[in-house]
From TrEMBL:
Positions of the Core-binding (CB) domain: 6-95
Domain Tyr recombinase, residue spans: 116-311
Residue stretches in coiled coil: none
InterPro entries documented for this protein: CB (IPR044068), DNA_brk_join_enz (IPR011010), Integrase-like_cat_sf (IPR013762), Integrase_catalytic (IPR002104), Integrase_recombinase_N (IPR010998), Integrase_SAM-like_N (IPR004107), Tyrosine_recombinase_XerCD (IPR050090)
Full protein name: Integrase/recombinase XerD
Gene Ontology biological-process annotations: DNA integration; DNA recombination
Keywords associated with the record: DNA integration, DNA recombination, DNA-binding
Organism ancestry: Bacteria, Bacillati, Actinomycetota, Actinomycetes, Streptosporangiales
GO molecular function: DNA binding
One Pfam assignment: Phage_int_SAM_1
Length: 335
């Protein structure tokens, strides 16, 4: 049986196997599978059949429009756009393989999503206040480990790494001579970039590793750099919980945009780069962006913030009043 005549579910798995050559991260592959399977399940429900009974040939524009309408009902616009993009890539692949005649996705509507603006920690002194509170042991826990907490938060604030990038770090990801340390980061799509680590952050990491050896013994170069209180590699949920608790105990939880958590630290890093005059290309490299547009957003947001700060100058209040008085006097003369 040909792919076209076979089940769409099998075509999905074959497509994901073919994508392995792109060296996608396990997280990305899981997201692709979730998007493809989610819409495919909607097609099956609308047809009243099991998922395995839906053939690739059944996936025409009409079927996909109905499926995406159902899929979008309980999901955010950004999630629907991502699923649409995944299906678009799926059909492009099978068109290139000459299995299907054309890509039906241009006939399937997708929501418009406004580009999201960066959401750094609010308040000029918030990063410093956060780190100082952690250094004092502000985070109360059954088994407190302030050196680890401080190292995790400082690493995020001073390198701008994504959550997945931080969790993928190994002890030997940090290399170089003392005073010239650097960290090798594996980003989206398996791309690598090297970020500098200055002496203060180096000192925090060394102190954290010292206390880790006291707790759990020798540390190997291939071991996870960041670990939980049992000495196991820190996971996504554990990192989010740790950061959330740090915000709360440091008294800055009200300065964090909803739904950002770890990403707020990355946004803070990038925003401060832009405020201090970093170029788009520098921001792009340090953050591991594939698109200049993503980095440009920080420059634009910073420019708006500067304008808002300037407009808040108290002298503007006097000038506004003088202008209003002059306009009122002009109006009186005109009557």
């Amino acid at each position: 049986m040909s792919v076209e005549q076979g089940s769409a579910a099998a075509a999905v798995e074959q497509y994901l196997v073919a994508r392995r050559a792109a060296k996608l991260s396990p997280h990305t592959v899981a997201a692709y599978r979730r998007d493809l399977r989610g819409v495919l399940e909607c097609v099956a429900r609308l047809r009243g059949v099991a998922v395995g009974q839906v053939a690739l040939a059944d996936l025409d524009a009409t079927a996909l429009r109905g499926a995406f309408a159902e899929y979008a009902a309980e999901r955010a616009a950004a999630s629907v756009v991502r699923a649409w993009s995944t299906w678009n890539g799926f059909f492009d692949f099978w068109v290139c393989e000459q299995v299907v005649a054309g890509n039906p996705m241009p006939a399937v509507p997708r929501p418009r999503v406004r580009p999201s603006s960066p959401k750094p920690l609010r308040g000029e002194d918030t990063p410093e206040r956060l780190l100082e509170a952690l250094a004092r042991g502000a985070r109360k826990a059954r088994d407190p480990w302030p050196e680890r907490d401080l190292a995790v938060l400082a690493l995020a604030l001073l390198t701008g790494m994504r959550s997945a990038e931080m969790l993928a770090l190994r002890v030997d990801s940090v290399s170089g001579r003392r005073g010239e340390r650097r960290v090798c980061v594996v980003g989206k799509g398996g791309g690598e970039r090297v970020l500098p680590i200055e002496a203060p952050l180096e000192a925090l990491l060394e102190e954290y590793l010292r206390t880790r050896r006291e707790r759990f013994g020798a540390v190997g170069g291939g071991d996870p750099l960041l670990v939980d209180n049992r000495g196991q590699g820190l996971r996504r949920g554990g990192l989010q919980y740790l950061v959330k608790q740090c915000y709360r105990h440091a008294g800055v939880h009200d300065r964090v945009a909803r739904g950002t958590l770890v990403h707020a630290l990355r946004h803070t890093f990038a925003t401060r780069l832009a405020e201090d005059g970093a170029s788009v290309s520098e921001i792009m490299h340090l953050l591991g962006h594939a698109s200049v547009a993503s980095s440009q957003a920080y420059i634009e947001v910073t420019a708006r913030a500067q304008r808002e700060a300037a407009s808040a100058n108290r002298t503007y209040g006097v000038v506004r009043r003088l202008v209003a008085d002059a306009q009122e006097a002009e109006g009186a003369r005109g009557t």
